[in-house]
Amino acid sequence: MTVGTTKQNFSILIIDDSSAMRNITADVLESFGHTVYQAETGDQGVTIFGQKTVDLVILDVNMPDMNGPQTYRELLLIDPQVNVIVYSSESKTAVSRKFAPLAIPYFLHKPVDLTLLYETVEIAVRGSDLLLHHDAWQEEGVAFA
Fold it and tell me: What distance in Å separates the CA atoms of residue 101 and residue 18, rounded to the nearest whole number?
C-alpha cells in the first residue's frame, strides 16, 4: 500500500487542543484525499460529531475541560459504533488506565509516523481485512484493542 493512494475518501474529525498537532494531522489527511473537521476541545468535537457524518475520530487524551476519555464517552452516547483512534505522547498503558473501563480501539503514539497514520486510518474505517502489518505496526507504536 502506498501512502497517499487512498482507495476511498473518509470524513475524519480531529479533536486535539494543540493547534499545531491538529493542523499537521489535518494537512496530512487532506493530502490523502480525506475530508477533515477540526475541534479544539472535546465539547466542540462532540458538537461537530453530532452535526456531521464522520467516519473516524482522531482523539487526543489530555485536553482541558473535557479530556479524551470524557469526550469518548460522549461520542459513544451519540454513536456506540464510533471509530476512534486515540493518540498521545503517553504510553498505551498509561492511556488505557485513563480510559478504563472502556477499551481503546486504536492507539498511535505521538509524534505519529505518517505511514502508520495512513494505514491505521484505513484499518479503523475499513476493518480488519487490512491487518496486514499488525506485528510490524506494534513495534512502531500502533496498538490494537
Answer: 26
